[in-house]
Each structure stands twice: as C-alpha cells, then as structure tokens.
Amino acid sequence: MAEETAVTDTDADRHPHTEQLTFNFKGGDSAELAQHLTGRSLSRRLPALVGRSLALAWAVERGSTIALLTCQVVSGLLEALGLFATTSALSALIQSARDPAHLRAAIPSIAVLAGAAGLRAILAIAIQGLSNRLGPRIAREAEFRMLEAATNAEMAAYDHPGFNDRYDQASRGVEVSRDMIGQSQNLVSSLATLIAAALVIGALAPVLLPLLALTAVPRALASVAGERVAYLATLRTFHDRRMLSMLRWHLSHKDQADQVRTDTLAPYLLDKYRSSGARVDRTNDEAAWQQARISLLGSAVGGLAAMLLWAGVMVLLGTGYISAAAAGTLVFALRSAAGGLHGIVGYGADLMRTGRYMDDWEAFIAEAAGQRLDRGNIVPGRPRYVALDRVTYRYPEADKDTLHEVDFEVRQGEIVAVVGENGSGKTTLMKLLSGLNLPTSGVVTWDGVSTRDLDPHTLWRQCAVVPQEFARWPMTARENIQLGQPQPGADDAVQHAAAASGADAVIAVLRNGLDTLLAREWWGGQALSSGQWQRIAGARAIHRDAGLLVMDEPTSDLDARAEHRIFSGLRELAKERAIVLVTHNLANTAVADRIVVMQAGRVSDAGTFTELTSRPGLFRELWLLQHDRAHPAT
Ligand SMILES: Nc1ncnc2c1ncn2[C@@H]1O[C@H](COP(=O)(O)OP(=O)(O)OP(=O)(O)O)[C@@H](O)[C@H]1O
C-alpha cells in the first residue's frame, strides 16, 4: 500500500485542473505502423530493412559491404556443400560397419565436410569483423544526416509541435543503427542456412518440406504478434519515458544543480521520477506477460509440428523410402533448418525493432527536410538599410499574432534601440530582422530585397547577433570569439573586438590567454562568470565583419564599467554597421539615434531619447519607474 502511495502523481491529485506536462508528439506514424505489424507486411518489410542497412553500409564503405556480401554468399554455399557431403560420408561410414574397406571411401567426403566447416569458421570471423567495422560508421553516418537535416531546417521548425520530440526519437534511431548491419547479416546468414538445409531435405525427402514449414510458421507468427505487443507498449510509455529522460537531465545537470539543492526540490522531482518509472514498469510487465502467453502458444503448435516432422522421418526410414545414411543426413539438415528458422525469427524480430527506430530517424530527416531552408538565392552585400514593412508574425501553432503590422527600419551608421515590456515582441522582431524567421505577412527587406529571396547563409555572414541566451562553446577563448572564421589580422582582430566589449580584461586574467579552454567540466578548462561570458559573446559579435549588428540585452549581466564601455563604443562600431539593440536599461538608449517602443506586438511610439522622455507615453512611464528608487522624493 505504501508502494501505491509512492507512485501516485501527487501534483495532479492535489490540483486536478493543473495542466500536466505532455509532449507534443503523439506517436502519429509510429502508431499507424503498429497497426501494420502483421506477418504479411513483415515479409515485405524485412527485405526492405536489410536493403536499407546495406544501402547505409554502401554509403559509408563500399569495399567492406561487397566483402561482407561475398563472405555471406560463400558461407551459405559452403553450408549446403557440407550438408550434401554428409550424405556420402554417412553412407560410407554405415557401409564400413559391414566392410571396413569402405572407410577409405568416406575420406574425401569427410575432408570436404571438415574443409567447409573450417572455411565457414574463418568466414564467420571475417563477417563479424566487417560488421564491427561497418556498425559504428553507419551510426556516425546516420547521426551526420540527422544533424545536417537539423542545421538546414528553418528556425521556425523548432517552434513546430513535435519537432524536438521527433529529434529525440530520431536520436534513438541513430543509437541502434549500428546494430542494423549485424542483425541484417545474422538474418541473411540464418536464411542461407535454412535454404541450404531445405535444398538437402528437398533432394532427399521433398515430402518433409511442408512439415518443415509447419514448424516455422506458428513460431514466426507468435514472434510477430509479440513484437506488436512490445511496440504498442513502447508507444504507451512514450510520454513517461520522455519525462524520465527530462527529469534525469534536470536532476543531474550542473545548470540547475544549485536550485535543486537550495529549493530542496530533489524529493519532489525524484517522486515524479518514481511515478513515471512505475507506470513504465506496469505497462512493460503487462506486455511481457502477454508476449509470454503468445510465445507459449507459438512454441506449443510449432513443437507439435516438429513431432510430426520427426515422425515423418521415421516413417520414411521404416518404409525404406530413404536409406539410413539419408536419414542421418536428414537429422543434420533438420537441425540446421531449425537453427536457421530460429535465427530468422529471432534476428527478424531484432531487425524489426531496430527498423522501427530507424523509421523515426527517417521521419525526422523527412520532417526537417519539409522545413528545409528553401529561400531565394540572391546574394546580399553589406546592408545599407534593413526594414520591416507591415510585418505580422505568428509562431507556428500559436493562437495569436506576436507582431502586428510592424514598420521598422535601420540604416548603416545608425543605432536604433528597441524597448518595451516583457513579452512585447522585441526578440521576435530581432529574429525577423536577422532573417532567422520569415514574416507571416508583410515583408522584411535588406536593401529592398525580401529576406525570402536572399540566400540565408550569405545573409547570416552579414549579420552579427548577440542573443539573450548566447552560447558558451566548450572551446578556447580565441575560438569562442573567432567561431572558426578568422578575420584579416587574426589575433589582432580578436583583441580589437575583445577591447570593444570588455572581454580584454577577461582574457588578461585567463591562465593561458586566448588559448585557454573555456569549459570547466573538461579537463584543463577555466570557468567564467556570467558577465565574463557576456563580454566574450559581445566580442564574438563585434569580431564578425557584418553589416547588421543585433544585440538583444547585451549587457544584462555586465557591471556598470563594462556596460559603459560597450555603449560608449557603439558609435564607432556604427560607422560601418547598422545597429539594433534591445535593452531594459533605458539610460542606455540615450546613445541611440532613434528609439522604437513596442507594446503588445505593435510599435506604439518612436523618437529620440529627449523626445520620448519629455512627452507622456510608455517610454516616459518606464523611465520614471526605473528612477523611482534612486530619487524617491522627485
Ligand atoms: N517560440 C515561441 N513559440 C510561441 N510563442 C512564442 C515563442 N517565443 C515567444 N513567443 C511569444 O511571443 C511573445 C513575445 O515574445 P518575445 O520574446 O518576442 O518578447 P520580448 O519583448 O523579447 O520579451 P522580453 O522582454 O521578456 O525578452 C511572448 O508573449 C511569447 O509568448
């Protein structure tokens, strides 16, 4: 009973109207796939899966793929040869019981048998080695394709429900893709064994072939049904498994480790972890029982058919239809066939499982391709002016617009500040200016050309952005500023940019200057404070020789001296750039040529600092509020 209480979702119980965390991805295609997990579809699907794994192997290493296939075919032929040699060896051995002179006649067949067995053993080692070589390469290729698809997708793809969930699912496909070639190879090898054995049985006693099929079919059907049960259980536990992985990250990652402790949050999160885990276990237990029952039925019917098969061998021997030597060979062949069948069912099931995850991988690549950056190919130069004309923007699947008919412009040599309350749409405006997102209606232009018609990659080369959440790359200080794109003058350009953002003071105290690795968790790395990181992020944007500089709260973590340094240097930077900055510290907007005030997704006011502070409006209101505490009496 105590156990029961431990797995109750206490949050949902206490607050029945509270929204519960659910993931956007409902399983969609995977659920449909489960409906199609039938024997008939499998007979089409397994060859397709083998083909898919060979195609991937072919893409990564043709030579090894050809070698693997050749070894496989030769190994199958040797199996058949060995079984045929068994008949003559056995017949010579049986006759030698009456006349020892026959022993000599058995020698060539035994030599063939031993040779075939030896060669097959060597081929098996080669096959294993080739599979081990190809597996990790296939996984890397699969991951590469997934990452390539993700980086070539529109930013808006990340705002589509299910995109991130599909990415996670696809990652699982990448993980298991390394097993695919081994499973395909084992399946083909089992099939080769079965065909070799069936050829021998067909030659000696074709009447046994239907009985052989009868032993296989019930087990194969049971395996398919069991797989379906397992897959449906995987779908049913999808949300809880996602929850587990999310909690695992939140409970262990350094970023929130402090809050997990100071907020004494661990017991609450661990309780959620236990609840989800218990639900997964319950579903899996039910599925395991159901699978066991199905397996038992399949094995019972298959076993009955096997008894009939052996009875058939006895009848054939008793009626003199086959010789004792042929019966002996049949025993070997039937054992081989049973092994082959067992392999086909087992490896077939493994391959099906892997194939399902690979479907998710393929679905992601297809989905990302659906969101692929597919814009024009006009190459933009250094922009002289960037403008929004009646731009409306609505995030994918959102129920209302974030920006409404916004007009905006910034010219080279100009600094425009964008201000407004939280959620008014400033960051969204920055994403549109920098071509990260395309407008829902209206047009964003660079020198009069719509960002839809511009080649996005060259556009971003002309764009430097300091986002609110900037990246902290686990690289050296130099790489963190250069981003693999050194400017003429190399380190001089880095130092120049660092001086403009205040990062020079950070570099000066780094153990190894620009060569210092900025990743604490990596051996040898040095940790930076938030403000120090922000200076590096500022230097990164200034270092880019880009015509548009977009800064979204670039000084939120900086001390007064560093903030002053950045804003007093902006005018110099603006000589060759158009600069747009978002800030909540309104004193900083005094450096701007123009200030644009955003309110609920619209431009509510615009003007110079003097104009906006001297007339009533949101800017003046916010400005007074900001100074309320410093001058309480005025
Ligand atoms: N990825 C998203 N998907 C859906 N809605 C979003 C997304 N990002 C932002 N929004 C919505 O757009 C609105 C404006 O967000 P935005 O980040 O542009 O505001 P902001 O003015 O920059 O706010 P802040 O001052 O807090 O940074 C918010 O109300 C938010 O709900």
Automatic annotation (TrEMBL):
Any one of the GO CC terms = plasma membrane
Entry keyword Nucleotide-binding: yes
Q: Which Pfam families match?
A: ABC_tran
Residue span(s) of domain ABC transporter: 386-625
**Compartments (UniProt record):** Cell membrane
Q: Which InterPro entries match?
A: AAA+_ATPase (IPR003593), ABC1_TM_dom (IPR011527), ABC1_TM_sf (IPR036640), ABC_transporter-like_ATP-bd (IPR003439), P-loop_NTPase (IPR027417), Type_1_exporter (IPR039421)
Q: Which CDD domains match?
A: ABCC_MRP_Like (cd03228)
Query: Keywords assigned by UniProt?
Result: ATP-binding, Membrane, Nucleotide-binding, Transmembrane, Transmembrane helix
The record, for PROSITE patterns, names: ABC_TM1F, ABC_TRANSPORTER_2
Q: Write out the transmembrane intervals.
A: 66-94, 106-127, 187-214, 296-318, 324-349
Which GO MF term does the entry hold, naming one?
ATP binding
Its membrane topology is listed as: Multi-pass membrane protein
Q: Which residues form the ABC transmembrane type-1 domain?
A: 66-353
Name it.
Answer: ABC transporter ATP-binding protein
Organism for this UniProt entry: Nonomuraea montanisoli
